[in-house]
Amino acid sequence: MMKAPRILMKRISLFALLALLLPAAAKAAAPVNDTFEKASVLTLAAPVLLNQTGVGSTPDALDPFIGGVKLARSVWYRFDAPMSSNYNRVVINDKVGVRAAVFELKDPDGNAGTLKFLTQTNNLTPNDVEELIFSIDPGRRYYVCVEGNGLFDVTLQSTRQPNDYFQDGIALTGNEGTVMGSNVGASNVNDVPTTLPTHTPGSGVWYRWSPTFNGQAVVDTNFSERQPNVEFDTKIAVFTGGSLATLVPVASDDDGGFGDNSRAVFAATAGTQYHIWVGGASSLTGPFYLSYFAEGNAGKFEIVHAPEEVSETQGTTQFHVCRFRAGNVAANVTVGTANGTAIGNADFTSINSVLNFPNPLTDDDGWRKTVNLTILQDLVLVENAENFNLILTAPSPGSSVGDSAPATVFIRSVESATAAGFADYYLRIKENLGFVAIPLVRNSNVGRVVMHVTSSESNTNQVQPDLDFYPVDEEVIFEAGQTRAVVYFYVLDDGLYEGDEVIRLTVSSLTPGLLSSGIDTLEVTIEDDDLPLPVAGRVSAVLDSGDIAGSVDIKITSSGAVSGKVIMAKGSLPFTGKLVNGRLVVRLGSPTSPLRTLTLELINSATKSYRIILNDGDAGSAVVINGVFATNYSALSPCPVAGMHTFSDLNGGGGIPALFAASIKVTAMGDATMTGKLFDGTTVTASGGVDTYFDAYLGASLYAGKGRVFVRADLKAAAETFSGGYFSLLRPGRANQTVELPNLDISASGRTSRYIPPTAGQRALMVWNPAGVGNADLSGGGFAVLTTKALNISTANKVAVAVPLPENLKLTITPSTGFFSGTVIPTGSNSAKPIQGVLHQGGAVNGYGTGFFLNSILPGKIKLRGL
To answer: What is the mean pLDDT of the chain?
Structure first.
């Protein structure tokens, strides 16, 4: 009875075994770019990779999330940016639907877990096109990660020009017009029509035009120049069709326009869209004009190359009158001069001439005429400032005059005139004065002089235009013979106490070629006459000047009640008090201690800023901190950097390789608490607050009151951003009352980073093993841990596997804070040495990568990757 079931079980086991083996045998090989380290390369010269596949690719623990979903498979691409550009995209033509994202490599020694996210697509619709648009900077490396269980094509489009690629052609509006463009940085790699005309632009850019008329149409690049008076040899081509593959050449030209410029003529059909490709001959690049119009158009006249300024002794100079959008017809216009402050036939020779432009198809003069201009030297010492206008009038029927006329020409006088200035360097006025007349003076009364007076805020956080004063932007004219004028400065009484506010007035000459007399900058101080009322909030700052070092944390209520503490080497000094007329002075410490006072002053009610002054009688010095802004974080307006941050000193000092590592917890109310350890393992706890710039200021006592520590940490809301920290260890005593410490009074640079604790089951830490390196980088102080595998620590298993002898490494992490500790046996030693540190996330630090810090009495650093 038992044999039949036993035979059946054997058969089932055989079928199960076959079921397991068959899929394994049919499994596709992994693509060559399955991993981040083996990313396929895209370049501007070879920007297209066809028939890519994600079939057979495998997920990696460091692969990114795309669309909030962890990738099931991934293939990688990379390229190095040769330039700066905002016009970049990766185009993915997929068969099955893909997820994809673009990243920037911030850490040269990093991996897929250290990339900075730029953009993504999460469109799983098959047989469509995805576009990932992003900006690049020269010398940076960028990665593309794609998840797709099928075939797709990848194209890199990177350029400086917004209309470099066919699909980005700029639309030309109306039946005629002129636009300015450039082909600098255009590439057109893999963006060339399948069928080419005779004249094909190199490094071209694209335009689209749909005329509404039937008949001969013209597109030209007349008067394009690579620099003034240096023609740009252009080419132009016109097509019809809906895509690069289906474009049909309609017309093209090289040198058919003015000089080396191009002029293409074709029979236009109303409503048809024409694609225009403009570029430089022989790969020349530069700016150009593109005109489009109907053949037979009379054109628009413009003044070109008019001199902005000439000398009184200039003699004869030239300018041009050009006819843009000129068809195969003649036209004319009158060129003339008009008096300004300079007088015709006294300061210059007046012009009033008709310029006849023949048919440009038979004569280049039909496009451009040269006009001579003669400047006269006068003998009058006192006269108006020299300027006049060049004008175009009476264009022939069908033609018009453009915006370049009138063109103003300044004549620089050879007589000795001087610019004006302020009479004094400083001025003080009351806030309720309303306005004040400020004098301007000049030494010479020769000629008419135009001055320009502007205002600027010396402290934009304190004084605000249109709230405290009306901005000044005014021209002041000195007529011939006049040596004094005034400019009016208006002050606003806002009813808020802001303390003294300073505005800077600057005067400059709009009349060219003048030497200044007088003072060109005036500081105006507005004296506040409002009653200072308390501004509730919290102010925190570092005290560091001369022999004074420490931190201060103060809370202020709406009634003016003040409480806080100062952390210094001498002790933790609490205080209380109340603001009276915006000011509080308190004595710190006991009545028998050396005189030490703290002053708190309201600077500006509008900006909620205070001044903090600490006078230390013992040190014989003072520290003044201006512009400490009160914070008022609440549940409705929480501190933007609330959460967990990690802090570590990197450089050490006083012969100690690394001093400090800590976790900083910030609440929604802006309270900051710190728990950390010194290099010798001594625990440090501190408290403080976060200011409006997201700097945390924290202080604490050490060694049973025999030393002090304070920290300023620049916190960031983004997990991938590193920022600077500041650490000082002040007059420490004994560590656990057993080991005498050196007399340290130092500060060391540090790093802070937003730390996101891992969720249950996530990997919290790994000792990274870069491909091809062959060891995890734990070096310095005579030891090097060699390993060919990654050591993982998860929230479920806090202790990592030990590295085999002769070197031995053990680590334990506290996932909630990012702290880790452990031991290492240096090479040639039999005893374990303690190590400790804290995790960072994102970005590079001194080339050591993401999530690292080894803080130990041993010199050296370790690459630790926090996930």
So the answer is: 80
